Amino acid sequence: MANANTKTAEQTQSNSAHTPTAPTTESASKAAHAAVDQVAQKAATAEDYVRKHASESAETLHEKREALEASLKSSVSRSRRFAQENPLLCAGLAFAAGMAVTALIRRK
After folding, report:
1. Given 3-state DSSP classes, what are the helix, strand and coil percentages for the chain, each rounded to the nearest 5?
2. Does residue 35 contact residue 27 with C-beta atoms inside 8 Å?
3. Domain boundaries in the chain?
4. Which letter does DSSP use for residue 1 in this model?
5. 90: which residues sit within 8 A by CB, 6+ positions away?
C-alpha cells in the first residue's frame, strides 16, 4: 500500500512538472516579477542617492568643524595677546562685568 502511494505521488509530481502553467497564473507571475523589479530598481536608486548625500554632508560637516576650530583658536590667541598687552584694561573690564552681574542678581 505504501508503495502504491509513493508511485502515485511521484506520478503527480512528474505530471505537474510537465503541465503548462495556466495563463492567469503566468500573467500574475509576470506582473509580480515586474513589480518586484521596479521596486528593487527604485530602492537601489534611493540607496545611491542617500549614500551620495550622506557622504557629501559628512565632508561638509568636517570642513565646517575644521573652520570653526581654526576660528576658535584664532580668537583665543587674540584674546590672550590683548590681555597681555593691556592688563589694567582687562582688570577694569573684569571688575565692571562683575559689578554688572552683581547688580542684576540683586535686582531679582
Report:
1. 95, 0, 5
2. no
3. 33-107
4. -
5. 82, 83
